[in-house]
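Reopening this ticket.

The earlier resolution said the output was attached, but the attachment link was broken on my side. Pasting everything inline this time so it's all in one place.
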Amino acid sequence: MQRSRTSEKSVKRLVLIDDHPIMRHGLAQLIRAEEGLDVIGEAGSARDGLEVVGKLKPDLAVIDLTLPDKNGLELVKDIRALHPSTQCIVLSMHDETLYGERSLRAGARGYVMKEEAADHLVTAIHKVISGGLYVSESLNARMLEQVTGASRSKATGMDALTDRELEILSLIGSGVPTKNIAAQLSISARTVEAHRAHIKEKLGMTDGASLVRYAVQWVESRAKV
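Inline output:
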């Protein structure tokens, strides 16, 4: 779905990529109420989102972390690689301590929790469009600690997982079989099993049953957020 309000160059053009139409509608209203901002396109999946970005060449894309066909982090990487002039902000319901830094490493310029969107999204958009980064004060403090050497401990547990491993853990917890995970991520079943082995090692687990139980509990805890 596309919409253009004005052709004035001073207006910054945005697209929304979220699989919930009601959420997109609310965000669009919030953004359009701000002078100098317009939502020119929307998409409900990563594939459609990449197509919309390629066609409309927006200044910024607001991307949900959880999309039906691909992890939002992977979409951010795709957009930054194929359309570097389009900046990205990740909007998510998930804990920023786990996904905030990952989003920035993927190429996003901001991370906003969905529950705080009404208060902070427009501010984040302006900051990113102006060339800055937007994260919460607590995440900013954590990142500064790492940069200054105040926190030099090696990543452990969930923090040690790669983006792909985290994605596979989420699919395991959602009950997706190995062959389906392989098909969804366009990788081999053997590669999925290798990732499972790495996940177990990093989480200190010795058997597959423990991994599945942990993954299910983790997915359920996220759903309650």
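Reporter confirms the inline version is readable. The two ends are 29 Å apart (CA to CA). Residues 20 and 200 are 33 Å apart (CA to CA).
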